[in-house]
Design a protein that fits this description.
two-stranded antiparallel sheet, 52% helix, 16% strand, ABC transporter transmembrane region fold, single chain, alpha/beta, Rossmann fold, elongated
Length: 423
């Protein structure tokens, strides 16, 4: 805006003053309308083109620089999070070698970026230095012809300098433009990647998902495509299943049968596969993965998630913690910490059950969510569904104990080629 106002203010003045630059060729005098304006435009165009030509690689270099720095940050965070395992395996040398390679890539692109900025600086600085002399040379014919006084020459040069000050905006700001363009390219690439998720596997068959009129869960001829495999699927051997309120269902299968994939399909909408799923209301369902998600912040926020921390009173929170064997955390409700790091996996899974106890969902879907609990803890958790959450339907995929009488129904999964049921 400032450059535009400066250009509008002085370009008319320079156009008028250009009439004082008179050329004398073989005794004939003539003027070129707007001569100094055209000179300013030509000089600015040449400088801008040269700046673009020399500085164009900075866009790619800046994008590479940001990408390599991001890789280094991710690698450092990964090592920090697994520092104990690295130390136990004595893998410090290997991790250091890997980090050195990533750091080397950062330094390499940094050197290229510094070189590119140095070359661009030569162009922009040279452009600025020449602007001191250029208007005098351009207006010299009028001065030496005697029609342009020294005072008038200085006025013309001053107006030319002001016009150039507006026209050199691109030259002065190209390094910032290149940096902005590199950031924009990365943001646009991320946006395109997110939008492409919508069309991911668009040509594949999808499980038909609809609402169950009675609020139950019904599965008909269901097989779910396994991620990373174009040929195999997780096939539910029971062709027709209907699960009602208060039932406890165990989904079993051999290793790599796709229990995790299959169980994670229930809360999803229209995943890859075949068959039909008639679902209960989504708001009545809660999904528990093997490693519970614990958001950053206070323990209160971790227990109440996804609701606001103020959704439940202290009395309810303390009762839930005590019920799952985490009474020792009663004084830490308002303490902020990385709870996924401060708590062991069995404590995290117990905390997830405290969350279930608070929210009291009508449907709970486990994905090996009891794997880290010892038999006593597991029994304690199961008692929650026998007393406090009597009407809650439980569907568990993973290891279960059929002898304790908790599960009332068993479903069987097996890994097989796609469309094997119809074959």
């Amino acid at each position: 805006m400032q450059a535009s106002l400066l250009l509008v203010s002085f370009i008319g003045v320079l156009w008028v003053l250009s009439a004082q630059v008179v050329f004398n060729v073989d005794g004939r005098e003539f003027t070129i309308p707007g001569y100094m304006v055209w000179c300013a435009l030509a000089y600015a165009s040449l400088g801008s083109w040269l700046t673009w030509r020399v500085g164009r690689p900075l866009v790619t270099l800046n994008a590479d620089h940001y990408a390599r720095e991001a890789e280094l940050r991710v690698a450092l965070v990964r090592v920090a999070e697994h520092a104990e395992s690295v130390a136990l395996y004595q893998g410090e040398a290997d991790e250091r070698a890997s980090l050195d390679i990533i750091l080397g890539a950062v330094l390499s692109v940094s050197r290229k970026l510094a070189g590119g900025l140095a070359r661009l600086t030569w162009v922009t600085s040279g452009y600025g230095w020449l602007i001191i002399v250029a208007p005098f040379l351009m207006a010299a014919p009028g001065y030496f012809s005697g029609r342009l006084t020294l005072g008038a020459l200085m006025i013309v040069v001053g107006a030319f300098t002001q016009v150039q000050g507006s026209l050199r905006w691109f030259v002065d700001n190209f390094s910032k433009i290149a940096d902005w363009r590199a950031t924009l390219v990365r943001v646009v690439a991320m946006r395109d990647a997110l939008r492409s998720i919508e069309s991911l596997n668009a040509g594949e068959a999808r499980i038909a998902v609809c609402d169950h009129p009675e609020g139950k869960l019904a599965l008909e001829m269901v097989e779910a495509y396994l991620p990373g495999s174009l040929e195999d699927c997780a096939l539910l051997e029971e062709t027709k299943v209907e699960i009602g309120a208060g039932e406890h269902v165990l989904v079993t299968g051999e290793t790599a049968a796709g229990k995790t994939t299959f169980s994670s399909r229930w809360p999803a909408c229209g995943p890859g596969g075949t068959g039909t799923m008639r679902m209960p209301p989504r708001g009545d369902m809660m999904f528990l993965p093997q490693e519970p998600y614990l958001p950053l912040g206070t323990l209160r926020a971790a227990i109440c998630y996804p609701d606001a921390p103020s959704s439940f009173g202290d009395k309810a929170l303390l009762a839930a913690l005590s019920r799952v064997g985490l009474a020792r955390l009663a004084d830490s409700l308002d303490r902020e910490a990385r709870w996924d790091k401060d708590l062991s996996l069995d404590e995290q899974q117990s905390l997830a059950f405290a969350r279930v106890l608070l929210h009291a969902p009508k449907w709970v879907l486990f994905n090996d969510a009891l794997s880290a609990l010892d038999p006593a803890q597991r029994k304690n958790v199961m008692e929650v569904f026998r007393h406090e959450l009597v009407g809650t339907t439980v569907i568990s995929a993973g290891r279960g104990n059929l002898e304790d009488g908790f599960y009332t129904k068993t479903l069987h999964l097996r890994r097989c080629p796609r469309a094997s049921r119809t074959a």
